[in-house]
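Q: Protein A?
A:
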Amino acid sequence: MPFHGTYDHSLDAKNRLTVPARFRPQLAGGVMLVKGFEPCLQLYPAADYEVIARQALATVNPLSPEARELKRHLYGNAMPGELDGAGRIMLPGPFLTYAGISRDAVVWGAGDCLEIWDKSSHQDYDSGLIPRAADHIASLGHTA
């Protein structure tokens, strides 16, 4: 089941984020927390992330500078974890700093993962998303 929807959450005093209950079964087998390409964090089912990382590297010359950089991003900026008994995930300080998350966060369904955004950054990004998405669809030869 793909991850859908937008959910407002706040971190607790120990920097734990409560994952929406509807997604916990998909994440019960372990998670991979990843620094996203945008200023956000991504939360994948662990097994799915490994497949995505391998697919991303499959068409790149493994000895090229691009492959080395991509490996560093895909593996160096990813951290395995598990949801605790209350359905929470600990967000480490360096990850929070990267995404600019202090307390108020948005959990955003992104199909194959959940994205975790700072609430203000999410509002700024989302405000222009629909026009950009329409432009992306048009560039692929589809009409929005």
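Q: Protein B?
A:
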Amino acid sequence: MAIPAVVKKTADMALNTYIERRVLPQLHARVRLVHRWRGNTVTLIEQRPWWRDEATWVDIPIAQFRYDNQRNDWTLYWQDRNQRWHLSEELTDSREITRLLAEVDRDPTGIFWG
């Protein structure tokens, strides 16, 4: 089942606000944050210029948020060095994606921002 339009729009707004706050405009030539949707999953991605060719940008996945239609909530995932996603055990599911974004920002274990 597809994510409800109102939930997706609310998540888009929250992610855009987070991205605007996280990266200063004067740094946009060196680092960007974007988000990409795939079904009921949205991934927060950091982009940086490739060291060999600065015209090419490299994607670095930071966090993934998955929406469950039956439970009407979001879950937070982190990616390991083998590019496998794991459920974040630090935070329970949330109906508000902003709560999960706050956890990514706080990053108490260093699994999102290092």
